[in-house]
Amino acid sequence: MDAQDIILKKRDGLELSGEEIDFLVKGIVDGSIPDYQTSAWAMAVFFRGMSEKETNRLALTMAYSGDVIDLSAIKGYKVDKHSSGGVGDKTTLVVVPLAAAAGVPVAKMSGRGLGHTGGTIDKFESIPGFQVERSYRQLVEQVNKFGAAVIAQTGNLVPADKKLYAIRDVTATIDSIPLIAASIMSKKIAAGAQGIVLDVKVGNGAFMKDPGQAAELAQTMMRIGCGAGKRVVAILTDMNQPLGHMVGNALEVREAIDLLGGGGPDDLRQLCTCLTAHMLQMAGVRSGYDQGAELVQELLQSGAGLAKFKQMVAAQGGELDYEPPGYGLPRAVIEAEVPAERSGYVVSIDTERVGRTAMRLGAGREKIGDTIDPAVGVEVIKKRGDLVKAGEVLARIYANDQARLESACQAIRDCYQLDGSPPEEQPLILQTFA
Ligand code: URA
What we know:
Pyrimidine Nucleoside Phosphorylase, Chain A, domain 2, alpha/beta, four-stranded mixed β-sheet, 46% helix, binds uracil, Transferase, Pyrimidine Nucleoside Phosphorylase, Chain A, domain 3, Aldehyde Oxidoreductase, domain 3, four-stranded antiparallel β-sheet
C-alpha cells in the first residue's frame, strides 16, 4: 500500500477501504507520510467527500491513534459538550459548572483557539493562576470532589487530529464535513464521556455557513458517536452574530460570571440553558428537557452554578476577587468606542470578521505558537435587529496597542450593515437532533 495510490483513488472519487484509512492515519502520526501527501489527500476529500463507512472508520482510527481516556474512576454518568466553533462562544464556562451543580460530573478537555474562533482553554487561562495542564489522576480527583474540571487536551490525545488539523488549517481544507466530523468526534470518543451534546454552529461566523450543510455535519457526527456506543444530541444554533456581547478571553470570562450570577445576555442564557438541559436529561438527573431547563434557571437564580464555578477555579489554582465589573481579571489599558456613522437597523454583522479583529488585537493566534493577550477584545454592543441612531455606540474595543486599536475600530465599523427596515427575526436554536 502507498500514499500516492490512496490519494489517486480519492482524487478519482472512489471509496477507500478500512485498511487504506488505517494506513493513512498511521502514516500521518508516525511521520512516514509527508505533509504534502496528507495535504493532497485532504484536498481530494474536500472535493470528493467520504462515504458514511469511510467517515466512521476515519473517526474511529483517529480516536484510537493515541491515548483514550478511561473515566470509569469518576462516579456517575459522564457527559461532555462540544461546539463546532464560533465567535463569543463562552458556553463551556457556564455549562460545565451548571451541570456539575445539578449533579452531573463533567471532566472536560478543551482546545485552544486558532483562526477566528476562540478556544476555551485560552479563556480559562486569562484567569490569573488558572492551571490547564493536569494529570489524569488530578482530573479524576477534582471531578470526584467538585464535579467539574476543564483541562487542556493531554499530550497524546488524538495525535492524528493534531497533525491533520494543523495541515488543514493552512491548506483551505477545514470546511469539509467528513473531516470536521472525524476531527471533532475522534476527540470526543477519546475523551471518554458516555454522553455528548454537540452545538453545531451555522452562519457567517461558523465553519458551516449553510443550514443544510450544518444539518449534514450534525447527523454525520451523531452517526459516528452512536456507532461508538455514545449517546449523542446535536443542536443547530445560529452564528450570524457573536454569542452574547463579549469577544476576547478575559472579557468572555467576565460575561460568563455575569450570567452565572443571574445577569448576562439573553442569547447566552438561552443557549447555555438548552445545552445544560440536554446534558441533565441525558444523565437522567431530570426526566425531560423542560424539567432540566427549569432546574438550570433555579441554579442561575440561587447562585449554585456560580458557587461551582468558584470551586472549580480555586481547585485549578485560579484567583479572582469576584468584585464586579472586572472580577479581578486582566484589563486592557485602552478602550475606544465605535460610533455608528448613520441611523438604521442592524441587519447583519460580519461575525467571522469580528472574530478576526479580536484575534488581530491579540485575543487569538494567527499561527500556532503566537502569544495571547488575555485582556483585549471587542464588546459587540448593538446586535442584529437593534435600531441605532447616528453617533450611537455600536461596539467598544479593548486594546493594549494604539496601532492595533485604530485598525480594529475601522474593521468593526465595517462589520456592521445598517438598513432602513429591520431584518427578519432569526431564532438562536434552529434544530435539535436527538
Ligand atoms: N473543530 C474541530 O475540533 N475540528 C474541526 O475540524 C473543526 C472544528
